[in-house]
## 1
Amino acid sequence: MAARTLVESGASVVVLEARDRVGGRTRTVELGSERVDLGGQWIGPTQDRIRTLADELGVATFPQHEQGRNVRASRGRVATYRNAPPVSMLSRLELRRALRHLDERARSVPTSAPWRAENAVEWDGMTVEMWKRDALRTAGARDLVDVMVRSIFAAEPSELSFLFFLFYLNAGGGLERLSSVTGGAQERGFIGGAQQISERLAEGLGQRVQLETPVQSIEQHDGGVRVRTARGDCIGRHVIVAIPPTLAGRIEYTPPLPALRDQLTQRMPMGSVIKCVAVYPEPFWRRSGLSGQAWSDRDPIRLAFDACSHDGSQAALVGFMLGRSAREYCERPEIERREAALQSFARAFGPEARDCSAYADQNWIEERWSGGGYTGLMPPGALTECGEALRRPCGRIHWAGTETATRWVGYMDGALDAGERAANEVVKRLAR
Amino acid sequence: MAARTLVESGASVVVLEARDRVGGRTRTVELGSERVDLGGQWIGPTQDRIRTLADELGVATFPQHEQGRNVRASRGRVATYRNAPPVSMLSRLELRRALRHLDERARSVPTSAPWRAENAVEWDGMTVEMWKRDALRTAGARDLVDVMVRSIFAAEPSELSFLFFLFYLNAGGGLERLSSVTGGAQERGFIGGAQQISERLAEGLGQRVQLETPVQSIEQHDGGVRVRTARGDCIGRHVIVAIPPTLAGRIEYTPPLPALRDQLTQRMPMGSVIKCVAVYPEPFWRRSGLSGQAWSDRDPIRLAFDACSHDGSQAALVGFMLGRSAREYCERPEIERREAALQSFARAFGPEARDCSAYADQNWIEERWSGGGYTGLMPPGALTECGEALRRPCGRIHWAGTETATRWVGYMDGALDAGERAANEVVKRLAR
């Protein structure tokens, strides 16, 4: 997106891509007879940038299937439900009150400068886990918060700063929007997969995109930058780094990055996710009146959705190992991950889930050029101590990547926001 | 230490040192007429490894001066005191009870596997800040905890996992020992400076030590390792990486590090410290009955000590910017740091502190080969989620550095412990 914006402004651009493909944290693969997403997948209301771009590029969307009863496996018991999860009335009331209060606080956090929130220091001294323990007394409500936090962040509540959590919620329009299918961030998938967006952007850039060219170092001089790769150097007037901060910290910089920026790159680890897709002869769960949505607090797959193709020609389920469960499986071979995923699906949807006709997964934690997923996260203290360094250009180096967005941080829409903003920074400086 | 242990076992060793000097986080410089420490400085009781090694290498120690009244600047007021800091009786009682309770809990954390502590998950879900707010009601007691945490960790209480905090306390024998001069970790300095330890170790290793040779990548093969540097490659059967985990994450590995190890390197940032030394014609503070020790919650220098040479031939003060105050100054020029340091000293010890005859400081945050200081820290969630990866060898790669110690983690003594342990791992495997 940054490259496209710059090219449109008349600038000369080279895109250095570490992988042998474009798409970053989106990746679409052939599985069975269809293309399925092993990375970023959905878009939803208010994500106007990605929606507009998809339209323009001719990538169509379709609604995520959610008709039927959902499954929840909690503390060893499996139950199905239609609207609200099967917890006690007390838990439900408690949670509703807490979430309303949470969204109020989230709205008080300025997304362009979360460290300026009135209670920034207090909230950045807490984990989400501590907020949960303080705000909620019932096990039912606490469990639901765990489920939501893992689903949205691919991390445990103990890993997240409460201020970062509120900032992230606000950037996406609130917890309800982030966690919903219809009306929320999981509303629609792309026919043919999400990676097409990047692929078509890259087509438009043509020879400017150089694959398999990881950047080793960035040198700044008076008049410009020199970017070194194993395939030779690139020189230019400015450079935009559009990778997660933790990976940006692994590039060598001459002169070194400002001290605070370096500290930031040490303080924004990636979440932990393994995404698993299983293809079946039939959408057997739909026959039993199930939606394909499932949450679990013990199974390796913490979260599942129906992943049938848009026209129903292929039946599939998608599941996520998240946070602790992803880390438990991140060094195991695919066959064990597959077994764990199918077992999880079987517990939620019935024994037929064991007999898939095809299976694929993506262990984002071992992806060298992602370092985890979905996104960079902040533990307590990082945002108030180093947040200012997140977007501030360092000489001729500008920062993009969804972590630097101010709307829909962590999502495809945020990545576009960040790319455009970084490109505009450069356009302005080139015009001087 | 690792190299020395290996050489003693008969192994052939090369030490690749990124800097143009040995010593890492110790650094001794000429200032005025004496050598002063701008990095690691003190040792104390139960630090038997460093004490024994210093004796053996002929580096003598001398007691840290602490006679006289201490200074405490709190909430804008400066006061002096002899034994206990000038807080209300209520604060003192509250703090004493809390610290006793804290040390009990610290002792329940096994230093070789803190994630196995009975309350590991609960404690790793909290920050030290949250513990403080929960356990202490009086402002006086809370302020003293801030002072102690900053002094021991070079970080704010909001940045630290409570489990990591307890682990670290236990590894050093408790909070009292870590924060004391006589009887504690600041008991004795080295005549001629702490860097001599590494220098003399290096002398013993002779040509095996190659300076200015940062490691770029480590490749593992069936029979051994290849370590690439800009000055050429080294091949060997095993490699010991003795740098902080966050910096170890910046080396390129082929094959990539195990996924959990990579996540760990994203989750162990360095603390933030700038160490400042000012030399004076006279130890004027001693004349006023002051010890040279000072604590402050607002001045850039959070902590100060007398830094006169062992024989009294040169008068000096040493001060630390820590955590937030270090980050506030980490991108400013030396002249501003100097001004801030001298102002802080003047507030604590009187206007004569402004007229130093020599000044030097070390901004460890901008030190590329340290990335901060004193040591690698863990935010909530890191120890329970990734702690196992801290010391576990990855094929032929073994991990040293004070962060991997089980006694006196973060101290010189811990670095020796870790180096010896890693070397012994290799010796065992070489003997097979």
## 2
Amino acid sequence: MNLGILIFPDAEELDFIGPWEMAGMWNMVSGVPERRLIVGESGDPITCAKGLSVVPHVSFDQCPQLDVLLVPGGQGTRKEVENSALINFISEQAKKFESVLSVCTGTFLLHRAGLLSGKRATTHWNSLDRLRSLGDVNVVEERVVHDGNIWTSAGVSAGIDLMLAFIAKTADEETAGKVQFASEYYPSAIRYGAAHHSPVAPGYLKKTV
Amino acid sequence: MNLGILIFPDAEELDFIGPWEMAGMWNMVSGVPERRLIVGESGDPITCAKGLSVVPHVSFDQCPQLDVLLVPGGQGTRKEVENSALINFISEQAKKFESVLSVCTGTFLLHRAGLLSGKRATTHWNSLDRLRSLGDVNVVEERVVHDGNIWTSAGVSAGIDLMLAFIAKTADEETAGKVQFASEYYPSAIRYGAAHHSPVAPGYLKKTV
């Protein structure tokens, strides 16, 4: 399996490094995916939304056919939806990949690449209305949404849950459990302050407060 | 506030990007920390434990006095405990910093820098016995441990909980709540498979299964 993670200027760091870490642990516990690649438009370092500088492993031109593509979100997506090279990269890969995953506002890049029409999908709580306004997406306010070979998740940290769910489905639950144990992903249930009581909190969160 | 995150070859990606993201959101919601720096021994790109290549913002020589230093873990720590330049960087910064945080096996780097003797601290579940064998650390099997100005956490993903707890203490709970909401950190409670029932699971996890 070739797993590629697409990055671009102002991609949100945890959106893609959460899943990157889970995929790395998956490889550690079971040898899959055999290749894990950070993909950029060129091979030059890319400055992410919070200022981290990451060097892609391959450029679009160098990237092999991927079996699984993950697309993060971040402020950069608002510009990248107009980047035809990036949108074409997604749609060309889509002709042959097995699965595509997006985190947070990465959903909007999948939509622009023509992959979400009529599909169930989600995004960061602050962009749910914007996703609905596209008119052709069945917006679901869950943390992880799976529709055929298209997986989308809520914002930023939700990419970790997304990748674990994908591993559980693609390999099996025991493998996902080994990844979860290796990365010690048994998060605190603490909810600080009152922000999560906001009326714009996503549906899955409102169900629990 | 100057926040520095130390990285080195084979540092574990999520160990430092989890806290990096939370610190970036902290800056977004309240303007603090004013500076957030990835610090490497030189300014050259560093390959992390799962293969991600990150370019430090500053080298040890260029790094200003930090108010807060975060030290991640990863396989690289086993080599870096013998790297006097790195250990000296920590111990020199320690003369003036306000707080130090470590994630996972970053604990062993703090210990080598002389910061943990007689202190309560923790690490990744797979290194708890090794931490106990040092003889002078009061090893606590909690997810986040706070002893004076020294904060340590369990493995890999626990750095997210560590940084949120640090923000709640240093700023206030409402600010931590805004960071948690912005990063949509309301993780799934799913535990896949049976790995977490292992007899070597950490104490805080055993209490919940």
